[in-house]
Amino acid sequence: MKNGIEGTIRSLLLSAGVNANGQGEADIQVKHPDFYKRVLREGPLGFGEAYMDGWWEVKKLDELCCKLLSASLDQKIKNMNYFVHYLEAVLINTGKKSKAFEVGEKHYDLGNKLFQKMLDKRMAYSCGYWKDAKNLDEAQEAKLNLICRKLNLKPGMKVLDIGCGWGSFCKYAAEKYDVEVLGITVSKEQVEYATKDCQGLNVKIRLMDYRDLGNQAVLGSGMLFDRVVSVGMFEHVVYKNYKTFMSTVYNLLKENGLFLLHTIGANQSVVTSDPWSNKYIFPNSHIPSIKQIGGSIENVFVMEDWHSFGAYYDKTLMAWFENFDRNWEVLKADYSERFYRMWKYYLLSAAGSFRARNVQLWQIVLSKKGVPEGYQAVR
Q1: Could you tell me if 176 and 227 lie in one domain?
Q2: One domain, residues 22 and 130
Q3: Strands 56-57, 29-30: parallel, antiparallel or unpaired by DSSP?
Q4: 96 and 284 in contact (C-beta within 8 Å)?
Q5: Terminus of the chain with fewer CB atoms < 10 Å: N or C?
Q6: What is the pTM of this model?
């Protein structure tokens, strides 16, 4: 039976151009005799956990994941854990308000030092815009400028940033475009960092779930915004709450306002997330499809522009890993070796996923009733 299981997994790997214990840079080196049984029993979750446990190695983890996903091996190895995960996603609203702060506590609050050593100088934790950029700092600054230009920001405008992170957009928009910005996040560490970093600017940072934005006692009666932006936060909303999210933004936006949504996107509509990522990296998260986003904005917004540049996320993630890996000697006093393997698997498997075009990155510009005489797309 053991040989049969090993043969099955080896055959699947070969179908993706990966040779177990081969000489290639994307070939897996198996270190534990139960590796094959674990992968067949636990699927993608077991595959990732086995790497964390040192059960296998590979020279280029990003390229391995690109090959596996290009061959759809994640779909071919399914198990009972997947169906339990599926039922939970269908029966339980993992994006409900009571769970809103979990991702902040488990991921974004891991320590500002970690993210400072990994990210660019502005602390932007989303895909950079590499069209004319030579490095990560340039790519992230170009992304922030691209968003501001797409929103056609003017001095004095009131702007809402839903999921503001460490305040990169808030600070950039206030500095460069002289706008007033309110940023909200579910991370205490991000609030502390962004508040200090934006000191002296017309920026306020608050610890808040997006559903509380409709509370007049929080924002003030009749408070409306000229522009709303959400960068890399929609992945935490979960499909059951998309309509609520869009309605919330709609009600906060002035009649002639614009909303820019920057989100990772899926090629097909699913209700679950990757089980390994959900357990270790982004709990209660979900990657939306075009259909799911379309359904959430139907009869709510007019779609003015849809810009896809997911290939740039590969370069962004590789730059993050290079920074993280280079600074590990400084970081390892605060984190375990198992954390290093987990974080490496997270960043490089994600890079491989975008390289395989298994997932996308979209910037979508929406208006309430359509821009008079048409919206002028910016690239």
Answers
A1: yes
A2: no
A3: antiparallel
A4: no
A5: N
A6: 0.94
